[in-house]
Design a protein that fits this description.
single chain; alpha/beta; Peroxisomal Thiolase, Chain A, domain 1; 2 domains; five-stranded mixed β-sheet; 10 helices; 32% helix; binds coenzyme A
Length: 322
């Protein structure tokens, strides 16, 4: 059997850091409120003209370097994003050109904050069926571009960044299982109403920004993440105590803490970056993974659980032997 194994990871955060104190100058909020309700202390914001593909390319180069591979060995690129550079071509095609690659398949996946898990699921299917041997899976976002910087209920929660994973075909596990779900019923609880087929001329500027019913999203996220964790563990006959690390989507520290509690994991076994990165949507899991691999917490052979929840609603998980 062929598995997709994580050969290397990379991350990139834009240089500019915006603290909660900085936001106090912009909207009616306080550092205390943001820390208390979300766990966020600061976020990175892309420079003017810095695009999602720019972030993705650096993260990808770092993942390729960490894997000790030559870029020419990459034979599939999937970019998870809901903030692409352009309507088309896909951000993945732009990344492909910037990496100096030709002809290999490259495409985007949009599943909002669950995008990385969806992209990982697809790449895993490519590798396990012989369709690719070395797949770059990137989550990259410039969330700052779809934020209303006068809306305190959303602008304090998001940040920009990119994370990448290089998956390599191997006889050893690898990605053990992936689980993805969606329910379009909840479209309007978390959305950016503007879109291409809605017609630009009829769209108010505010429709181009994130609209969220935070409280309802929060409740749904907590219950759904509990269910997906149970589905993943029982589907693989794995017990909570077999897990070394939970690497969750980083939206809110209270959501992460509730997920850890349901899994009876100590917070020492949970990778948390939401304090430093805020919610970087599809970039948050690969960024958190990269941080914890590089600082030596996550070690080869350990069992990891990734889980995410986002607009759609979409949700998903992956059980991974690193
Ligand atoms: N600063 C100060 N006060 C704020 C604020 C801010 N930045 N944003 C909202 N408030 C106020 C609200 O206006 C409200 O005031 P009111 O009671 O006078 O009406 C009060 O704080 C409570 O708002 P509420 O939305 O009920 O707070 P909450 O405890 O639910 O926390 C979120 C808000 C957004 C942090 C939380 O709901 C959340 O994290 N939701 C999920 C978000 C998420 O994960 N989204 C992405 C999914 S991938």
């Amino acid at each position: 059997m062929t598995f997709a194994r994580i050969a290397g990871t990379g991350g990139y955060l834009p240089e500019r850091v915006v603290t909660n104190k900085d936001l106090e100058e912009m909207v009616d909020t306080t550092d205390d409120w943001i820390r208390d309700r979300s766990g966020i202390k600061r976020r990175h914001i892309a420079a003017k003209g810095e695009k999602t593909s720019d972030l993705a390319v650096v993260a990808a180069e770092r993942a390729i370097e960490a894997a000790g591979m030559d870029v020419s060995e990459v034979d599939l690129i999937i970019v998870a994003t809901s903030t692409p550079d352009k309507v088309f071509p896909s951000t993945a095609c732009i990344v492909q050109r910037r990496l100096g690659l030709r002809k290999i398949p490259a495409f985007d996946v949009n599943a909002a904050c669950s995008g990385f898990i969806y992209a990982l699921d697809v790449a895993n299917r490519f590798i396990s069926t012989g369709g690719a041997r070395n797949a770059l899976v990137i989550g990259s976002e410039t969330m700052s571009r779809i934020l209303d910087w006068t809306d305190r209920s959303t602008c304090v929660l998001f940040g920009d960044g990119a994370g990448a994973v290089l998956l390599r075909a191997s006889n050893e596990a690898g990605i053990i299982s992936t689980h993805i779900h969606s329910d379009g019923e909840f479209e309007e609880l978390l959305h950016v109403p503007a879109g291409i087929s809605s017609g630009y001329d009829t769209v108010q500027q505010e429709a181009a920004f994130i609209h969220m019913k935070g409280n309802e999203v929060f409740r749904k996220a907590v219950s759904t993440l509990g269910n997906i964790a149970r589905e993943t563990l029982s589907g693989n006959n794995i017990k909570q105590e077999d897990l070394a690390w939970l690497v969750p989507h980083q939206a809110n520290l209270r959501i992460i803490t509730a997920a850890a509690k349901k899994l009876e994991l100590s917070m020492d076994q949970v990778i948390v970056t939401v304090d430093e990165h805020a919610n970087t949507s599809s970039a948050s899991i690969p960024l958190a993974l990269d941080v914890a691999i590089r600082d030596g917490r996550i070690k080869r052979g350990e069992l990891l659980l990734f889980e995410a929840f986002g607009a759609g609603f979409t949700w998903g998980s992956a059980l991974v032997r690193y």
